Amino acid sequence: MLNKKIALSLFAIISASAQADLIRHEASFGTQGSSTDVAELSPLAQTLRINAFDQSLGNLTGVNITVYSQIDSAGSSTNDSNENGRADVEIQLTDDWMVSTSAADSFTFGEASFDALVSDQSSEPGTYTLETGDSFEYGISTGEISSMLSNVDISAFLGDNPVEFFFSTDARTNLNNIVDGGTGMFTNMFSTGAWGRVVAEFEYTPNQIMVSAPGTLGVASLGLFAFAFVARRKKS
Hints:
- With 236 residues, this protein is an alpha+beta fold.
- It has two helices and ten strands.
- 23% of the residues are buried.
């Protein structure tokens, strides 16, 4: 049993130098959950940059890239009419909500559509619960959407320049008001913001550490001592 422990210890010392290492870099824009930070979404045009791998650290063997994004909107609709009314709010994408890069395949968080991406309403369709002076306050969110990018080009991270990731969309916030007969007057206030993040994980094999001659002799002596000890144990 002791012989096996010594052999395993020596194997662990030898194998440690061959293990891969990991470095994580990230970049972001806006504030997650905020409806006011990066509020210009028509259109949204934000570029994030990830620095290239530092090749002095070793040999790059893999790159994992995960992208994140979220859209939030908050506001209110006040009924200034003499009739009861209602309010609807929605975020609609007139362009695909996506991230693109030259280093991997693009990813689409949401496709352009006539249907609402997210929505809310003061009451069920056909019902009018907002009396004169009442306000409908809302807060809607897509929640965090994320994905790992596919077909990553490792060579793109071996140059001198950062790799760019472009987040884009055209997101429209629509507030619609209706009264139960007559002419309606409403005061609407809202803001819509976006957040995005890129996380890159560099997998690499570290450069070998050069060992001085005395150090090399010390390791060799340790190995000889261990094997001699094992041999002595066998004889006894």
